[in-house]
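Let's practice the habit of predicting before peeking. Look at the sequence and jot down your guess about where helices and strands might fall. Then scroll down.
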Amino acid sequence: MAEGKIIGVRWHGRAGQGTVTAAKMLAEILISRNKYVQAFPEFGPERRGAPVRAFNRISDEPIYIYGPVEDPQFVVVVDPFLIQSPLVKEGCDENTVFILNTEKDVDTVRRQLGMSNNRI
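Done guessing? Here is the structure:
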């Protein structure tokens, strides 16, 4: 990781799937490796099955940014039904890497996302 660079991760899932827990676990692992990390959720209606987002910021230096990750380098989609949600690709560019929980092939996922050059 380049000095001063902050890596942003955005998670998409549904309440009860462990999305927030996964973001916190990633933070714990990285803290144990002497990284500076943020992990926090963003909830809509708090009920089981409602869409939820979680975020991580990762850096070699202290992080002074607060709020949602708007331009993630990584997007993790826990619930495969959310792949088609416009929120999944919000703020993404051709360098964003998508990590998806799906049985669909890469070409199908690329069409669903409408992003042809990204790593999936």
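How did you do? The helical segments are 19-31, 86-89, 106-113.
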